[in-house]
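re: the backbone from monday

yeah here it is again, tokenized this time
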């Protein structure tokens, strides 16, 4: 996993998932939380560890936490591997049942910056995994070029 800019790179975004506060420290309110991540191999593990702590503090059920952590891992890994910095994780807790997971990055990296030596058959599973556990998932591109990949995890509305 590599990044093409220093982890301290900062941009603003207009997308609806970002909070006003920025910086390396987590930002938490009663039902929303944001963490700026350093680019590099430790980012997914850091994101999972901190997200687990926060979701447990919110009282989320264990099945929802497990599914949300799987989505956090996939989205953060993809952002660190394939996108420009900065990378931030955002969680929002809804009525004790659903969790919005969003990972915002600086937009896609150009092809010549791709630096992944894994075999081709080890790529492309993240979207399928996210879609399998999410109630809904999509991407939003802000006017500044940042992209938020999001998924809602929790019991089905059916």
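seq for it, each position gets an aa:
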């Amino acid at each position: 996993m590599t990044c093409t800019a220093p982890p301290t790179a900062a941009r603003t975004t207009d997308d609806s998932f970002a909070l006003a506060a920025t910086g390396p420290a987590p930002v938490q309110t009663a039902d929303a939380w944001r963490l700026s991540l350093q680019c590099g191999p430790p980012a997914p593990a850091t994101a999972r560890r901190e997200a687990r702590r926060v979701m447990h503090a919110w009282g989320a059920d264990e099945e929802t936490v497990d599914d949300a952590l799987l989505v956090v891992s996939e989205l953060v890994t993809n952002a660190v591997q394939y996108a420009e910095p900065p990378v931030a994780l955002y969680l929002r807790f809804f009525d004790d049942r659903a969790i919005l997971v969003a990972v915002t990055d600086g937009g896609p990296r150009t092809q010549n910056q791709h630096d992944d030596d894994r075999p081709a058959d080890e790529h492309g599973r993240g979207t399928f995994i996210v879609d399998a556990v999410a109630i809904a998932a999509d991407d939003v591109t802000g006017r500044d070029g940042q992209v938020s990949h999001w998924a809602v995890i929790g019991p089905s509305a059916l």
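The helical segments are 43-58, 62-82, 126-133. The radius of gyration is 15 Å.
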